[in-house]
Amino acid sequence: MRLDRFLSGQTTLSRKEAQAAIRRGEVTVNGTVQRKPDCSVDPDEDHISLGGKPIEYQKFHYFLMHKPAGVLTACSDRKQQTVLDLLAEEHRFPGLFPSGRLDIDTTGFLLITDDGALSHKMLAPRSHVAKYYIATLRDPIESYYAAAFAEGITLETHGEPEPCLPADFAPVSEKVALLALHEGKYHQVKRMFAALGNHVEQLSRVQIGALPLPAHLQPGQYMVISEAEVQQMLCETPFSEVSTYYQQFFRHNG
After folding, report:
1. pTM for this structure?
2. Would you please indicate which residues are annotated as catalytic (active-site) residues?
3. Residues 67, 102: contact at Cβ < 8 Å?
4. What does R_g of the chain's alpha carbons equal in angstroms?
5. pLDDT tens-digit profile of 48-103?
């Protein structure tokens, strides 16, 4: 790998800025100043420092954000704040993107990464990775909702039927429900409840796979997550266990 490419991938420097820093003698490779941007380095073997500070190689970066309402799930926008704008400068690595969309008024679990393969695996319906949502409804939950979601609700798109995959459903309180989806259609949760004659007033994604959104993470905050936690997102947890947890959580926390 070229030295300038390594620096631009592991720091917030652009490729041009990395080249300038190298030429100024600010970069060392194995303790020796290196002034050639096209110098070949092995990220797994070589010790590289910028301004005297060692740079630990990370092939990919993973941030778990509690997305707040009113912020776009996008990389950039000229008019509105995006989730990437919430990252600190030192975490704005090239190639980062939000994995999966949340509507502007939907809150909760959002992965920001530069690992495209992981994102695809997490979102692809054939991977069967569950995404869990808490929905606060306008009207009380009806007894037939669970069966309707289990059978698979059919939506309508441009006058054509659009069947949804079966989804897991459990009431949390009279007007609050937990829902687990294995796909991601446009405004899917809201449209599914609308098909049942109800309306979603608040919506939050609370968990992906076996990894829940930490209770201490407030809207707008984020945290770096480890490879082990990333793998948790790809693991399956029995829906009964997840629903029991959230029923108990809301019983104690409201």
Report:
1. 0.84
2. 103
3. yes
4. 22
5. 999 999 998 888 999 999 999 999 999 999 999 999 999 998 899 889 999 988 99
The four Cα atoms 66, 69, 73, 75 give a dihedral, to 10 degrees, of: -90
- Looking at the chain, how many residues does it have? 254
State the burial class of residue 193 (Cβ atoms within 10 Å of its Cβ: 0-12, 13-18, 19+): buried
The 10s digit of each residue's pLDDT in 224-250 is: 998 889 999 999 899 999 999 999 888
Report the distance separating Cα 236 and Cα 84, nearest Å. 28
CB atoms within 10 A of CB 162: 14
The CA distance from 133 to 108, in Å, is 9
Strand order in the sheet with 48-50: 32-33, 27-29, 48-50, 53-54
Q: Which residue has the tokens 């190298």?
A: 22
Would you say 101 and 185 are in contact if contact means Cβ atoms under 8 Å apart?
no
Within the chain, where are the H helices? 3-10, 15-23, 116-123, 145-151, 188-195, 227-232, 239-253
d(CA 172, CA 251): 8
d(CA 42, CA 1): 6
